[in-house]
Amino acid sequence: MPTIRLERLVKRYGAVEVLHGIDLDMAEHEFTVLVGPSGCGKSTTLRMIAGLEDVSDGEVYMDGKPISNLDPKDRDIAMVFQDYALYPHMNVAKNMSFSLRLQKRPQAEINKKVMEVAKMIGLDQFLDRKPGELSGGQRQRVAMGRALCRDASTFLFDEPLSNLDAKLRGQMRAELALMRQNVKKNMIYVTHDQIEAMTLADRIVVMNGGHIQQQGTPAELFKNPVNKFVAGFLGSPPMNFLDAELVDEGGTLMAKGDGFNIALPAELANRAQKLALGTATLGIRPSDLEYSADAPDAASFDLNVVISEYVGAQSVLICSCGDAKITVEIKSETPIALGETLRFAVRPEGLHLFDPKTEMAI
Amino acid sequence: MAQRTSLNRITPYMFVAPAALVMILALFYPISYMIWGSFRDWDPSQSLSETEFVGLANYAKLLVDPAFHASFWVTMIFAFTVVTVEMILGVGLALLLDRNIRGMSVLRTLFILPMMIAPVVVGLVWRYMYHQTYGTFNRFLESIGLEGVNWLGQNPLLSVIMADIWQWTPFIFILSLAALQSLPKSALEAARIDGATGWQQIIYIKLPLMMPVLIVTMLLRLIDAFKVLEVILVLTGGGPGLSTEILALRIARTAREFRELGEAAAMSNYLLMLLMVLTLGMFAFTRWQEARARRLKFAAQEEG
Ligand SMILES: Nc1ncnc2c1ncn2[C@@H]1O[C@H](COP(=O)(O)OP(=O)(O)O)[C@@H](O)[C@H]1O
Ligand SMILES: [Mg+2]
């Protein structure tokens, strides 16, 4: 299985540059997820790896060999498309075996392979159906199956689950996670859904505006986002951001704002003091805020409940803190009323600071 | 209330009524007149009511008339040859020109020009080009050291077939190009990734997906080719002998030169029946397509 390397990959459409020099290394057997808001250039990157788009500048290497001038068919890749891209006039078996038939493999081998994959993805009952006679979820499976039938070394997925309804998406996500453990291949997966990214990836690459913002394991990115964009993009509900002044009060650096005055842990305070910033953006994930009536002032927020969204065991509360809005989570059985003011303790390790101008993490 | 609903039901028919009236007057009246006339021994100097009823005599006479047979076969050969060649050329050109390179839209526009020229003009232009001494073709042949060909004299059918192909290939080209450009892009990309070469994409993906459009296009063209008149009229006038006398010409001659309106009407009816079969075939095909699409959609919905 090859390693794939993108080197200063640039894509221009006419005069418009949509990818500005992507550098990325993907190790063997790694499940890499490209994630970012729509229009950030994920599909373009993937399609350049596939050979469906020309490379404007830079190079794609597979096992050290430049491949950007090769045809898609010479790159040893399989791809699952967002709209599945099934061949409408062929039945499921023919769809899945198309590539094998082009290679003129023996019929017995083709049949065996198709049956094996069809069983694996639960489509063995539907081999004679045309794509038009299948439901959305089944079509999605056929698209997966078609890719699996190929013995390609690298699998590319372009938002394969985005056309499914929420329930089916969750189910397919779980199946993909399972498949990923059984099929040892390089996989590059594009999605705009951060939950898919977090659950599937060995490594997440967060993109925005044609740049890579940060890459790393899901846990690394979640705990130590390098900038405000990554911090806000990963995690659900998203991180809260508050404008704060940094004030030294008797040797402790405090983040002070409208309705809160929080003591910063020593390490974070040191880093902030080195930059000598007067103000900063304070970032706190909802999961780092905990309902606690008797928390000390310097480690808590007093929040006024504006909206309560019941989502089952947990409720999501949107509260006001001065002029700002803060999202928190709370166990649904906790008796609260709208308009009530509640105290939430913040975990010190859950405090993030961002430079208000560069938006980089401090 | 009941009155209201019945009024509602009538309303659409009332809107259709003027159009239906025009149809009846402009379409059904002449056709009925023709059908009626085909059962009579009818000279152009008589009015239809003065003519003698002869039953199916006109039809029977045609069945054993060698000139009609010749004309029928000329028409068949002409229609099937031009449609076959036009389909191959038109689809081939569309496959060739379906790409986004600079200047392609100009080229496409140029390709459809022949179709926009009035058939009579096409006939005149080709007659000039076929001229034995001044004609473009023979001058070209002579310039490369070959002997000139007596196009319209010795190869009349081939000559009219070539002119028709020149004029009508663009029609198939445009429709094929439209069909090609509405093919699902991602299925073609998937085929590229699955390892299909350009040829394999055409044979396994593009042509099968274009087939419904191609079949309708072919039937339309076939119907039209059976009715061809102007170009042949101008080029050869049906000659030499009966070699290019297609049915439409034969009908005109029977009516005007031989003054056998009844027989001409009967001949028209044979042609009409033939075209009716083709048209119904085309409708049946599109109906079948639609029904199949509906059934597939329904099946997919059932499973959610
Ligand atoms: N064929 C094209 N011509 C011009 N611009 C394009 C084309 N395809 C994509 N783009 C632009 O490139 C950017 C990245 O697109 P894409 O890679 O599809 O984003 P996404 O991250 O949603 O997959 C978008 O701003 C889009 O408008
Ligand atoms: Mg995309």
From TrEMBL, chain A:
InterPro entries: AAA+_ATPase, ABC_transporter-like_ATP-bd, ABC_transporter-like_CS, ABC_transpr_MalK-like, ABC_transpr_MalK/UgpC-like, Mo/tungstate-bd_C_term_dom, NA-bd_OB-fold, OB_MalK-like
Keyword Membrane: no
UniProt keyword annotations, A-Z: ATP-binding, Nucleotide-binding, Transport
Keyword ATP-binding: yes
Pfam families reported for this sequence: ABC_tran, OB_MalK
Molecular functions per Gene Ontology: ATP binding
Domain ABC transporter: 4-234
NCBIfam families: PRK11650.1
Family: Belongs to the ABC transporter superfamily.
Protein name, per record: Sn-glycerol-3-phosphate ABC transporter ATP-binding protein UgpC
Taxon lineage: Bacteria, Pseudomonadati, Pseudomonadota, Alphaproteobacteria, Rhodobacterales
UniProtKB/TrEMBL annotation, chain B:
Main location: membrane
Subcellular location: Cell membrane
Segments forming domain ABC transmembrane type-1: 72-284
Its membrane topology: Multi-pass membrane protein
Bilayer-crossing regions: 12-36, 72-97, 109-129, 165-183, 203-223, 270-288
Superkingdom of the organism of origin: Bacteria
InterPro entries for this protein: MetI-like, MetI-like_sf
Record keywords: Cell membrane, Membrane, Transmembrane, Transmembrane helix, Transport
A family per Pfam: BPD_transp_1
Keyword Transcription applies: no
Family per similarity comment: Belongs to the binding-protein-dependent transport system permease family.
PANTHER family in the record: BLR7065 PROTEIN, SPERMIDINE_PUTRESCINE TRANSPORT SYSTEM PERMEASE PROTEIN
Protein name per its UniProtKB record: Sugar ABC transporter permease
Lineage of the organism: Bacteria, Pseudomonadati, Pseudomonadota, Alphaproteobacteria, Rhodobacterales
